Amino acid sequence: MNLQDYFSLVFSDYTLRNITLGTAILGAVCGMLGSFAVLRKQSLLGDAISHAALPGIAVAFLVTGAKDSNILLLGALVSGLIGAFWIRAIVTKTHLKSDTALGLILSLFFGFGMLLLTFIQKQPNANQAGLDKYLFGQAATLIEADVWLMVIVATACLSILLIFWKEFKLLLFDVNYAKTLGFNTKFIDSLMTSFIVVAIVIGLQTVGVVLMSAMLLAPAAAARQWTNSLAKMVCLAAVFGAFSGVLGTAVSASQNNLSTGPVIVIIAGVFVLFSFIFSPKRGLLFKRLRFIKNRRDLELHKTLAFMHGIAETHSNTSHPHTVKILNNFQGYTKKTLKKLADKDYVSLQGNMWSLTDKGFEAASNLYNQLTKSNNE
Amino acid sequence: MSSAQLEIQIIASLVAIACAIPGTFLVLRKMAMISDAISHSILPGIVVGFFITQDLNSPLLILLAAVTGVITVVLVEYIQKTGLVKEDTAIGLVFPILFSIGVILIAKNANDVHLDIDAVLLGELAFSPFNRFVITGVDLGPKSLWVIGTIVLITVGLLIAFFKELKVSTFDAGLAASLGFSPMLLHYGLMTVSSVTTVGSFDAVGAILVVALMIAPAATAYLLTTNLKKMLIYAVCFGVFSAISGYWLAHGLDASISGSITTVLGFVFLLVYLIAPHRGIIAVLYREKQQRIEVSLLVFLLHLSNHNEKEERHVKHLNEHINWQKVQSKTVLDLALKNNMIEINEHIVSLTKKGEAFTKQAISYIVTNEDSEIEHIKEDFFLFRG
Known about the structure:
The complex is a heterodimer.
Chain A: H1 3-9, H2 14-39, H3 43-52, H4 54-64, H5 69-93, H6 98-121, H7 133-136, H8 144-163, H9 165-173, H10 175-180, H11 185-224, H12 230-254, H13 260-278, H14 284-312, E1 321-322, H15 334-342, E2 346-349, E3 352-355, H16 357-364, H17 368-375
Antiparallel strand pairs in A: 1-3, 2-3
Helix pairs in contact in A: 1-12, 2-3, 2-8, 2-11, 2-12, 3-5, 3-6, 3-11, 4-5, 4-6, 5-6, 5-11, 8-11, 11-12, 11-13, 12-13, 14-15, 14-16
Chain B: H1 3-28, H2 32-53, H3 59-82, H4 87-109, H5 117-122, E1 132-135, E2 138-142, H6 143-161, H7 163-171, H8 173-178, H9 183-205, H10 207-224, H11 228-253, H12 257-275, H13 281-306, H14 315-321, H15 326-338, E3 342-345, E4 348-351, H16 353-368, H17 371-384
Antiparallel strand pairs in B: 1-2, 3-4
Helix pairs in contact in B: 1-2, 1-6, 1-9, 1-10, 1-11, 2-3, 2-4, 2-9, 2-10, 3-4, 3-9, 6-9, 9-10, 10-11, 10-12, 11-12, 13-15, 13-16
C-alpha cells in the first residue's frame, strides 16, 4: 500500500479510519496538555507517569481477569495518579530533587509492573496475551469504542481547560500571585497534573509506555517556538500533535513492518527540528542571520567612526585620504566601503576616499543616538 | 544452590555495584533523568553494533552503544544551550526520538536475527549463565560476568583515582574549576562511565531497570546520610542486598528477576522514605508539627506582651482573637504554662518574667534578623519541645 492508497482508503476502511482518528485525537489532546507540562518544566513527568501506569494495568488484570481495555486503563490511571502524587510528595517533603524523584518512581513502578507481568504470564490462564501491547503500543488494535473513549476524554479536557483557563494560566506564570488572589493553587495544580495523567493513560494503548513522553512534549516544544501567547501555543500544539498522528499513521500504514508509535514520534520530532531551525523569532537560522547582520552593521559603524576620527583632524572634512590607512582592525572590508559609498556617506575616487557632509553628520551622531533619545 | 544460581547472583550483585557508583553522583548532580535518557537512547547504538558484530556481548557493540549514550548527553546539552527549550524538555525530546530510530531499525532489518526490543529493554538474567566465555576449550564462566566484572573494576579504579576531583566538582563546580580540575572533563567522564555501565548491564537486567539500580540505591542512601563516602557505601550495600534478595523473590514467584530486584529496591526505598531519621517522611511531618506549635507559641506570647487590657488577655477571648481552633489554643496554652512562660489568674493570662524575657529576645531576633541570634534562639526552642 502506498500513501495514495492510504488516503483513498482512510474514509472507507474501518481499521484505518479508527487508527487515524484515534491518533489524531490523541495527538491533539497530548499537544494541548503537553503545553502546560512543558511550560511548568514538568516535561519528564509524562515519561515517569507513563512508566508508572504499568503496574496498574497488571493489577487490574490480576484482580478482574478481564481484558476489557477500559478496566485496564482505569488501573493504569489509578497507578499513574499514585505515581504523580508520590513524586510531588517526595519533592516537597524530602531533600531529594525532582529529577531523582521522577527517576525513582519511573523505574521502581516499571520494575514492579514487569514483575507482575511476568508473574501473570506464568499463570495457567490463556487470557493474558496482549498485555504487553501497552509496553510499545499497538495502534492497530484500536476499535471504535476506544476512539469514542478518546473523544469523550478530549471533550472533557477541552471543557475543563476552557473553564479553568484563567486559573491555569495564572498558575503557570505566577504561582504566588495566584495564591494572593485567593485561588486554591493546590487544587488547580492537582487538576492539571490529573489531566496530564489522563492524557498519558489514553495514549498508552496507541504509542506505548516508552514513547508517550515524546507525544506529550514534541508538539508543545514545536509550538512554543512560533508564539509567545499561551492560547496560540495550546492551539498550535494541538494542531501539530494531530498532524503528527495522522502523518505517522499514514507512513506506517504504507510500509511493512513499521509500528505506528515510533513513526509518530519521529514525525513529531521532525516538526520540532523544523520549528527549532525555521521559526522566525526564536529559530536558530534567523537568530544566526540576525547575528551576522548585527555584526556587519557594527563593523560598518566602526569604519565610519574611524573615518570620522581622521576627518575631524582636518579643517576640510571632505579632504580625501588613501584607502590604505583603513585597516581590517577598524572593520574595513571592500564591501563595507562600497556600502558606505552606496549610502552616500563617502565618495570614492580611485584609491582615495573622503567623507561627504552627510557622512560626517551621520558619523558624528553615531554614538549620540542613545544619549539623545534618553534626553528626549 | 546450583552453580548457575550462584553465577546469577554474582552477576546481579556486580551490576548493582557498577550502577550504584555512577548513580550516586548522578543523583547528587541532579542529573538522575540523564540515566533514563541514556538507557533508552543506547538502543540505536546497540542495533547498529549488533548488525556489525552479530554478538550481543562484543566489546565493539558496548563501545558503540556507549558512544550513543554520550552523543545523547551532548545533544541534550546542545539543545539546552540554544535556549529554545528547558533542560528537561530537551531530555524528553532526545531520547524517545533516538529510541524510535532504534525500534524502526530493528523492525526494518532484524526480523530474522536474535534481537528484539523486549530483550534490550527488559533483559533476562536467568539466561546469562548459558552464554559461556570459552577460550581454547576452557570454560571461564559466563560472558556477562566478565563484561560486568571489567566494568566494575574500571569504575572502582576511576572512583578511587578521581575521588577528590569528583567530590569537589559535584558540590562546587566553581571551586573545582579554579583549582584547575576541568569540570567538563569530569562531567563527560562520568557520562561515559554511566553509558558504559548502562550498556554493560542491559543484557543482564534490561535497559530500564538499570535506571532503577542507578537511582534507587543512591536516593535511599541520600535519605540516610550527607557524607559522600558513606552514601557510596550505603548505595552499594542497598544495591547488592536488593540484587540477592530480588533473585530469591523471583525464584519464589517464578517471575522476572530484574522485575523482582526493582521491586525489592522499591520496598527498601519506601521503608527508608518512611522511617529515616531526620529526613524520613514521618520525621519530617513530626518536625513540621513541632514547628507549627512553636510559631503559634511565639504568636501567642507576642500577643500577650502587646496587650495590657484584661479583656484582650482573657482565656476565652484568645480563642477568637488569634483565630485558632479550641484544641490548638489549648495545646499552646498548656505548652506555655508548662514552661513557666505564663500564669493564669481567674482566666486572665499574663506573662511571667521568663516569658517576658523570652518574648523580648524573640522580637529582637525577628526585627534585627541577625545571624548570631539564630543559633541561640534555636536552642531555646528546643527547650519547649515535647
